[in-house]
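Researcher: I'm comparing several assemblies side by side, and this is the next one on my list. It has 166 residues spread over two chains. Same procedure as the others: predict the full complex and return the structure.
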Amino acid sequence: MKFIAHINVMPLKELLDPQGKAVNSSLHNLGLTMLHDVRIGKHITLHVDAADKADADAHVREACKKLLANQVMESFDFTITEA
Amino acid sequence: MKFIAHINVMPLKELLDPQGKAVNSSLHNLGLTMLHDVRIGKHITLHVDAADKADADAHVREACKKLLANQVMESFDFTITEA
């Protein structure tokens, strides 16, 4: 079966996010002062060939832990849908 | 009212995504050959102070168009939830 995974990798809440801070300032300079607490991470989509959803889940989790997220600085979550 | 926006900014399907291609190769080198068609974009979360959800939607859309997404190369979508 074919699945699509949507993965979010975000900087941990405890850490500074300088890119988010910079974008926050830029938004305020544009007059959008009602927007705040900007945090910026990565959104990754990928296709998975797997026997079932649990199998796809295991493969995506392995990919996140081994390559996609640096768990010292980042957290990840994902959803898997049938393609 | 306070809302939280979750924004995804992704490279357009028609364009090459060199970062995604590189990650795809790395996943295959790690033995995760069941994963393919990797595409990498940005995930942005921010807080919105707005009168109602429609108002929050309008502010976030303006932020995406003016700053967060380059619509020549990227598409965006977002969801808004109450904080």
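Model: For your comparison table: Chain A has a mean pLDDT of 97.
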